[in-house]
Amino acid sequence: MPTSLPLRLLQLLLGLFLYGFGAAVMIRAAIGVAPWDVLSQGIALQTPLSFGVATNVIGALVLLLWWPIRQKPGLGTVLKVLLIGPSAQFGLWLLPQVQGLAWQIPMFICGLLMVAVATGLYIGARFGPGPRDGLMTGLHARTGWPIWIVRSAIEGTVLLIGWWLGGNVGVGTLAFALLIGPLCGVTLPLFGIRKPSPAAATP
To answer: What does pTM read for this prediction?
Structure first.
């Protein structure tokens, strides 16, 4: 876990780039994407915006929702709004869409693992949560609802809207929903978020 500011910044930027690129890998696998990416896809299909720009716009709008719930963004929050979209668009430009499950499934798995590692990197850098994470924790703090209910309500809403707009909902969407939590449970301790040991917790 880096402690110097330059190394933490490098970890943050690497994590944000990898997050967007991993999203692009899953999109090119074409078997379903994460709920927020379904929304970005739907908006891109229904407007002149590219997927990357739609992702940035959604991030900025979500960040605006922090104001009424009194959340404070960090550097990582702002950079995630600015950088995820371009890195995803770069990945879409670079990567071809594959055909056949023998290619699609491994490609989706690679993208999912990239996003899990990226999440551990950018959160572990400790520059503040992403806009979607902050919205979730802020609503949890304001409403007192369990975090899983808040997250399910938010992601279920954006998934339905994105699907209605034409975003790609498939088995990959379900796999992402089921696996991203456990995978991040592995990557977060690797890159800076560790549970306190019993000895450390003892006063």
So the answer is: 0.87
